[in-house]
Specification:
It is built from five helices and seven strands. The radius of gyration is 20 Å and the shape is globular. The chain has a single domain, classed as Mannose-Binding Protein A, Chain A. The protein is of the alpha+beta class and 165 residues long. Strands 1-2-3-7 form a four-stranded antiparallel sheet, with no helix packed on it. It has a three-stranded antiparallel sheet with strand order 4-5-6.
Length: 165
Amino acid sequence: MKKWMILLLVIINVSHATLIRDDTLEVVYDDKTNLIWQDNVDVVTGRYVWDEAIDYCEALDFANSQDWRVPNINELFSIVDLGYAEPAIDTAIFQNIVSKYYYWSSTTFAGDSNYVWNIYFGYGHDSTCTRGHRYHVRCVRDKKAKVVVPSPKEASPFIYYYLLN
């Protein structure tokens, strides 16, 4: 029985090992989803109606970047950790969270675009509400892929030949 418990703990730890906090920039990198999450005090102090949340993230100049946006519901749910409650997120990584409040997503409800999906981080469940509620927002941006072009010395002879001719 103990072996199964240890294996389960290892699996849980590995599944969240892709989240890395940068205290200097106040962001969280997620190598699994290739997203970068805003995690400064604004995440807990600002409350917006949905249109304001969209505008806020699109205008955000933070952590040396200006390409922030409101996450879609799947992206937002990816940081929920049901191993925790009140809040249902790893607070060692995400240090700014209002546990008993909702956070906006950019995903509108398919049946009625006046409703928008959100996450309640108290217990990590999703729901919909009208755009006029005042909720928090945690902006996100895509992690830029680094393009590595091998030098001719590192390239295979075929590629090296092809590049020269």
